[in-house]
Amino acid sequence: MRVWILCCAASLSGCGSSGAVDPTDATTSETGDAITDVAEDVMAEVATDALAPLRSCPTSGKGAVAGEVCFLLTPAESGLPASGVNATVDQYALRPTSSARGKLVVFFNGSGGSPLAGTRGSPSASFYATARAAGLHVFAVSYRSDDAIGTLCKGADDCFLPTRRTVMTGVFETGAAAALSGIAVHEGALARLVAGLTTLAARDPSGGWGLFLDASATKPGDKVRWSNVIAAGHSQGGGHAALIGKTFAVDRVVALSSPCDMTTSGPATWLDATKSTYATAPSTSFHGLGAPGDAICSGYSSIWEALGMATSRRHADATICAGSAAHGASLECVENAPAWTKMLE
To answer: Domains of the chain, with CATH numbers?
Structure first.
């Protein structure tokens, strides 16, 4: 079976009708107006074989997830070019065995990491396993995460948002870090998310993956049913989850040890809900978990405040387990499973 996927080749705001755009977020144009439409669409033919079995996740050792209905799927295996950065890195896809809630956790790992990160702690009590036990589907995207956004932008306020949009769409946006100038559309996290879900729907037809796709949509961003999505991530990935929540009306955003985009004067403008428009209300639908003494993302607490997150949804008391540093604790310490469950309920 051949599935045609329309990949976005413009600003993230133009990828979906639910995306909100305001002047502070706009990509520069000749008229100075915000770009709200896709500037260029690229059709990518993604071949999938409905009969080919999905690879199962390991149940022991590194990257283990206990139980069944956990699959591994690289972007290349979902039909995208293997030449892309991290295109041959395993993505994790889990579905609940019962009591499915019809919600999908889309997870973004931190810089220098991979989707493997969400399996840390315990095969039966990792972040992914906890989400599945809560009746949620999970898809962890292998995206272009090798470079840290903070290092690329070096505190420049006008760099953070276009750089993150570039990573999401796979199209270089004006103002983004120059290191991403050669990025390809098929490397964009959105293209990989749609390709992955499409492949899962074909190869695991009883798994409910089709619930998160709208095959009739014409705009790339609309191909995902965002109202059924919980955008989540750790560190740099939490910033990407916040961008998804800014652009699309999702069920909620879960930020672990994040967001982290800080300038010398405070949180980046795009993370200030009084200066930037959000399709998902940060005050009611953003949730954060961080540990005290986080030296890598020391500004997460002030960013939560700038976003206007409700105090009841700010958890700056993550347990730091043996062998973990403060920054990683929110994702890799199973002692925080009750907090994960609370944020995902």
So the answer is: 2-49+65-344 (3.40.50)
Give the SS3 label for residue 74: coil
To the nearest whole number, what is the mean pLDDT of the chain?
Answer: 88
Q: How far from chain centre, in Å, is Cα 250? A: 12
Using alpha carbons only, how large is the chain's radius of gyration in Å? 18
**How far apart, in whole angstroms, are the C-alpha atoms of residue 168 and residue 298?**
24
For the packed helices 157-169 and 236-247, what is the interaxial angle rounded to 10 degrees?
Answer: 80
pTM assigned to the model:
0.90
C-alpha 76/C-alpha 82 separation (Å) is 5
Dist. CA 59–CA 318, nearest whole Å: 27
* Residue 158 scores a pLDDT above 70: yes
Residues 6+ apart with CB under 8 A from 119: 57, 63, 64, 65, 92, 126, 127, 128, 129
Q: What would the pLDDT profile of 7-41 be if each residue is shown by its tens digit?
A: 444 446 444 433 333 434 543 332 222 222 222 33
* pLDDT of amino acid 52: 78
User: Which range among 8-12, 105-109, 184-188 shows the weakest confidence by mean pLDDT?
Assistant: 8-12
In angstroms, rounded to a whole number, what is the distance separating the alpha carbons of residues 19 and 244? 9
DSSP string covering 92-119? EEE--SS---S-EEEEE--TT--GGGGG
Confidence of residue 51 (pLDDT cuts 50, 70, 90): low
Strands (E), the chain: 2-8, 41-47, 55-56, 70-73, 91-94, 104-108, 137-141, 229-234, 252-256, 262-263, 266-267, 286-289, 314-315
